[in-house]
Amino acid sequence: MDTIHSNIDLIAFIIFIFCWLGYSLFIHICKRKSDNLFGTMFEYRLKWMEESLDREDKSVDAITLGNLVRSVAFFVSTAILIMAALIPLLTYGDNIQSFADKLPLISSSSVVMYELKILLLIIIFIYSFFKYTWALRQYNYASILILSPVKTKKEKAIAANRNAKILANAARHFSMGIRSYYFGIAALSWFLNPYIFIAASLLVVLVNYRREFFSRVLDIISS
């Protein structure tokens, strides 16, 4: 029975990794196409940067960038708090096991397995922390580029495309951080049952795919 549980846990973990990395690769390939949320928003970012270069007063751009930076900074702080809460749990494997074994619908696991599950959550939120901080740095770079003066018409065309790209790349890394939160919730279901873990991993992919390619928001902004 322990061997069966170990095999199911291993299969569930492989499916989880495949879903996360596979979907990330899929979105990376499709990022410039116009049939998804990211590609459509790039066109709006490009229009924003083209208009920005013709404005003398860039206070609106500075305020907008400040709002973006504050949003990312909030998630950076959240990731740190979650990691700070998870790390001490590595020393409470025995207590977690004895508590979880008393709950219904939860498959029993060894102390080592519980610690591995906690370690997976810590790795996920460390990953999200690096993604958020990199997005934050890119928004800071973008603010310098956007507020820098551009004189000739040729320079404006290059600058608009460059600024839109760095904004889009910052948004992409921010989205990867948000996506890791979704998969973190799926990983949390592993504590309940490996079958629920598999279902949650697939559900996260389905929810993200629908939002990126078939959401109401995409219909609105692409109309």
Question: Any overview of this molecule?
Answer:
By secondary structure, this protein is mainly α. Helices cover 82% and strands 0% of the residues. The chain has helices spanning 2-30, 37-53, 59-86, 93-100, 111-147, 153-188, 194-213, 216-222. The model has no long low-confidence stretch (mean pLDDT 87).
Q: What is the C-alpha radius of gyration, as a whole number of Å?
A: 21 Å
What string, H for helix and E for strand, traces the elements in order? HHHHHHHH
Distance between the termini: 55 Å
Q: What's the tally of helices?
A: 8
How many strand elements? 0
Q: Decide which structural class fits the backbone.
A: mainly alpha
Number of domains: 1
In this structure, how is the largest beta sheet organized? none
Low-confidence residue ranges = none
Inertia-based shape: elongated
Quick recap:
This protein has 223 residues and is mainly alpha-helical.
